[in-house]
């Protein structure tokens, strides 16, 4: 026979369960997904930690904070439109190609972004220019910076279409606002008159306000000829060369080298 005490315990447990489910539902509707996961995990855990009320609230808030930050980083990485994933931790320093570990570590601190400096990474094809730029881009995303990765020639083509549609000012404004712009494969295709003017607009908008990483197979001293048209080339280079940081890579293509190694084991 069920006693009144047993009935009260059952009733209280039922009310507690209903209240917890209601709380979870409200968290979901409020999009408090970090809190939702932490609270649900706590309810489902067979091992209950002895936490005070303020400690438990701290756990919930920390979980929400981490969840929002992680989702923000994921959005930033998607928006950056990287060509592939890269990580500073996976950079190979064992191959002689002019890559200085100490310099990379300094760049990883992202002070050049805080100081609105530009970074030039030059070297022959396959030496890891794009990988290093992308890895720094990922690092910037993880630290809350807005990043945009673009192939230079493709960007100029897209902006030509935008000009034809009458939307180029809006597109340039988007580029101006990103904290770090990565112009990959700079100078592989010559700049025509419209592209030169567009490049100057981009550089002028970002000068001493935002940072730009430029990767190129062409040495910086030859960029003048690549841009063409004396007045515009002078204006572009005057704004980006003097206060830039430079990384100059050399040696055999990493892709060619890795292909040779793979063939040895075939």
UniProtKB/TrEMBL annotation:
GO terms for biological process: DNA replication. Keywords: ATP-binding, Nucleotide-binding. GO terms for molecular function: ATP binding. CDD domains: AAA. InterPro entries: AAA+_ATPase (IPR003593), DNAC/IstB-like (IPR028350), IstB (IPR047661), IstB_ATP-bd (IPR002611), P-loop_NTPase (IPR027417). SMART domains: AAA (SM00382). Residues 115-248 form the AAA+ ATPase domain. SUPFAM superfamilies: P-loop containing nucleoside triphosphate hydrolases. The keyword Iron-sulfur does not apply. Belongs to the IS21/IS1162 putative ATP-binding protein family. This is ATP-binding protein. The lineage of its organism: Bacteria, Pseudomonadati, Bacteroidota, Sphingobacteriia, Sphingobacteriales.
């Amino acid at each position: 026979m069920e006693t009144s005490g047993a009935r009260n315990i059952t009733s209280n447990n039922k009310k507690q369960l209903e209240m917890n489910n209601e709380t979870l539902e409200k968290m979901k509707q409020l999009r408090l997904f970090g809190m939702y996961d932490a609270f649900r995990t706590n309810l489902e855990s067979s091992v209950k930690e002895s936490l005070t009320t303020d400690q438990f609230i701290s756990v919930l808030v920390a979980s929400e904070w981490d969840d929002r930050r992680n989702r923000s980083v994921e959005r930033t990485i998607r928006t950056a439109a990287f060509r592939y994933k890269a990580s500073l931790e996976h950079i190979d320093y064992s191959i002689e190609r002019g890559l200085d570990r100490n310099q990379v570590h300094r760049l990883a601190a992202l002070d050049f972004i805080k100081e609105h400096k530009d970074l030039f990474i030059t070297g022959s094809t396959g030496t890891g220019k794009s990988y290093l730029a992308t890895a720094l881009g990922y690092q910037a995303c993880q630290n809350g910076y807005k990043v945009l990765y673009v192939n230079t020639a493709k960007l100029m083509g897209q902006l030509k279409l935008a000009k034809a549609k009458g939307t180029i000012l809006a597109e340039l404004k988007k580029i101006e606002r990103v904290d770090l712009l990565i112009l990959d494969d700079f100078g592989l295709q010559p700049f025509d008159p419209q592209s030169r003017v567009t490049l100057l607009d981009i550089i002028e908008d970002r000068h001493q306000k935002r940072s730009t990483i430029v990767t190129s197979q062409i040495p910086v001293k030859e960029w003048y000829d690549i841009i063409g048209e004396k007045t515009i080339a002078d204006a572009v280079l005057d704004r980006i060369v003097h206060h830039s940081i430079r990384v100059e890579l050399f040696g055999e293509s990493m892709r060619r080298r890795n292909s040779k190694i793979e063939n040895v084991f075939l």
